[in-house]
């Protein structure tokens, strides 16, 4: 989680001041959802990055941009409009640097290309529940930073997400979301979530259900899960009063989701072989953070054994 430090903007002509967020963590869930809807619209309508930034800036400042604004731009003095546009551009550059990020995006031939995408890095779930299409019941997602997700749910969701990044097939993203968002159940699972179980028989139904979600909702869930995965590989997790440096559990603290999903898959087999919890089905039912505790315990044991061996 990032520290909060709101950005204050002062309008010199009037002396008015307003504060806007300076990171994704400072946004409210409603603000996150609105910005994702603006981003989705910008992709569909082909807005420029500046157009998208300006609309986000106006939204965060509480400025309405409507037909009156367009009419004023046409009737006002060109010099005044040019000065206003220059000030808006400067504010976008100064205040919204956290909004977008440039990524390497190789094409099919392996040529490196630059692509600008949302730099979403919050582990707070801005969509705790969703209602897809005309489906009468709501679907409920995990808590912030996946704290109440089972090991099996996380493993299947991260694997499906990794597959989506490779194939760009929306069905893979739908499967990822189907493992995260479920209908209510009367009894909690071992991770404490009151959601129905997913197996090979009903995953198809669950996938069709979440396929009705809006594209901006799918994008937000994808970005949020990716951020959580990166946090679980490089951040510091506090469990039972102990701070666990997750970067020490993964080689180099890489942020590639494929590294994590593969490691969890191997870990499930190893824990099942050791019978510390039970068979692999029982391991999958265990809370994700309990598995992290086991990993950290084994890591400390290995370090102690290395010291003894050197001595």
Rounded Rg: 23 Å
- The side-by-side strand order for the widest beta sheet comes to 1-2
Count the strands?
A: 8
Structural class by sheet pairing and helices: mainly alpha
Helix content: 40-55%
Major beta-sheet overview: 2 strands, antiparallel
Uncertain segments are: 252-262
End-to-end separation = 40 Å
Proportion of residues in β-strands: 5-15%
Mean pLDDT: 85
Please write the string of helix (H) and strand (E) elements.
Answer: EEHHHHEEEEHHHHEEHHH
Shape: globular
Assembly annotation: single chain
Q: How many DSSP H or I helices?
A: 11
Walk me through the structure.
The protein is mainly α and 311 residues long. The protein contains 11 helices and 8 strands. Strands 1-2 form a two-stranded antiparallel ribbon. The chain has a two-stranded antiparallel sheet with strand order 3-4. The radius of gyration is 23 Å and the shape is globular. Mean pLDDT is 85; it is low at 252-262.
Write the layout of secondary structure elements.
Elements: E1 7-10, E2 17-20, H1 29-45, H2 49-61, H3 67-75, H4 78-95, E3 100-104, E4 114-118, E5 129-130, E6 139-140, H5 151-167, H6 170-180, H7 203-210, H8 215-234, E7 236-239, E8 242-245, H9 257-274, H10 280-285, H11 288-310
Antiparallel strand pairs: 1-2, 3-4, 5-6, 7-8
Helix pairs in contact: 1-2, 1-8, 2-4, 5-6, 5-9, 6-7
């Amino acid at each position: 989680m990032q520290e909060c430090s709101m950005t204050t903007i002062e309008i010199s002509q009037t002396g008015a001041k307003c504060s806007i967020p300076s990171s994704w963590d400072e946004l409210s869930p409603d603000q996150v959802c609105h910005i994702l809807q603006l981003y989705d619209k910008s992709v569909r309508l082909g807005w420029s990055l500046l157009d998208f930034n300006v609309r986000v800036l106006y939204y965060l400042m509480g400025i309405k941009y409507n037909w009156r604004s367009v009419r004023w731009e046409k009737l006002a003095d060109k010099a005044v409009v040019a000065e206003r546009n220059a000030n808006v551009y400067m504010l976008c550059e100064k205040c919204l640097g956290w909004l977008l990020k440039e990524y390497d995006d190789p094409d099919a031939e392996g040529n490196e290309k630059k692509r600008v995408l949302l730099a979403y890095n919050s582990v707070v779930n801005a969509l705790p529940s969703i209602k897809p299409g005309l489906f009468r019941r709501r679907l409920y997602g995990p808590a912030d930073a996946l704290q109440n997700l089972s090991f099996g749910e996380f493993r299947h969701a991260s694997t499906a997400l990794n597959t989506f990044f490779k194939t760009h097939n929306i069905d893979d993203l739908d499967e990822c979301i189907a493992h995260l968002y479920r209908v209510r159940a009367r009894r909690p699972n071992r991770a404490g979530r009151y959601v129905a179980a997913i197996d090979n028989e009903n995953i198809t139904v669950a996938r069709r259900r979440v396929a009705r979600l809006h594209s901006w909702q799918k994008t937000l869930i994808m970005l949020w899960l990716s951020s959580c995965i990166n946090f679980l590989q490089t951040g510091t997790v506090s469990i039972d009063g102990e701070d666990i440096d997750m970067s020490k559990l993964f080689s180099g603290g890489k942020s590639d989701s494929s590294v994590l999903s593969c490691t969890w898959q191997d870990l499930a087999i190893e824990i099942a072989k050791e019978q510390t919890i039970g068979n692999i089905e029982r391991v999958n039912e265990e809370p994700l953070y309990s598995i992290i505790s086991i990993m950290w315990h084994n890591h400390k044991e290995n370090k102690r054994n290395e010291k003894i061996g050197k001595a």
